[in-house]
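Q: What residues go here?
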């Protein structure tokens, strides 16, 4: 219920042209949350509208849509460029998407796990659920950081508390 309530509140703020609300609602819709159906096309439209308002968070959310092909044809280079612009402004959305690019060697950047971890840490510290999940994963497998299952679980719990489904799956698997 709380995710659907949050989505409704973000939606009301979007109607009022509150720029950052576009990013937060886009992020929820890109993958869905309990009680909030996945809607990649709407996620893209929201991020694009927020970015048009000049919102750094929305530029990062739009970058994520391009990197993953959420509601739009994938264009990793464009996604990375938007992510970098958002990251430079200190947005967790940009930090996350640029971290993804370094983690996977996307968009013409060299694969650099340590840089991916640095960016995921920044996003996670701001409460970005996907940043928290990916930081947990990096700790779990020891990629870019020393292997630390307890630290992985800590980050997975924070992401799962925000309805991030992958983190919930990781926690179930680690508890088994």
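A:
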């Amino acid at each position: 219920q709380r995710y659907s309530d949050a989505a409704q509140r973000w939606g009301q703020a979007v109607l009022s042209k509150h720029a950052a609300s576009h990013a937060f609602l886009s992020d929820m819709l890109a993958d869905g949350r309990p009680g909030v159906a996945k809607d990649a096309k709407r996620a893209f439209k929201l991020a694009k509208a927020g970015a048009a308002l000049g919102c750094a968070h929305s530029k990062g959310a739009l970058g994520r849509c391009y990197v993953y092909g959420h509601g739009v044809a994938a264009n990793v280079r464009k996604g990375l460029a938007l992510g970098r612009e958002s990251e430079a402004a200190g947005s967790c959305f940009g930090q996350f998407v640029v971290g993804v690019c370094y983690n996977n060697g996307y968009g013409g950047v060299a694969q650099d796990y340590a840089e991916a971890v640095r960016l995921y840490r920044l996003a996670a510290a701001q409460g970005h659920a996907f940043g928290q999940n990916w930081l947990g994963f990096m700790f779990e497998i020891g990629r870019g950081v020393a292997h630390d299952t307890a630290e992985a679980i800590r980050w997975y719990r924070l992401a799962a508390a925000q309805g991030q489904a992958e983190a919930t799956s990781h926690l179930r698997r680690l508890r088994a």
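A: Context that may help when evaluating the design: Residues 2-15 form the longest helix (14 residues). The chain has a mean pLDDT of 95.
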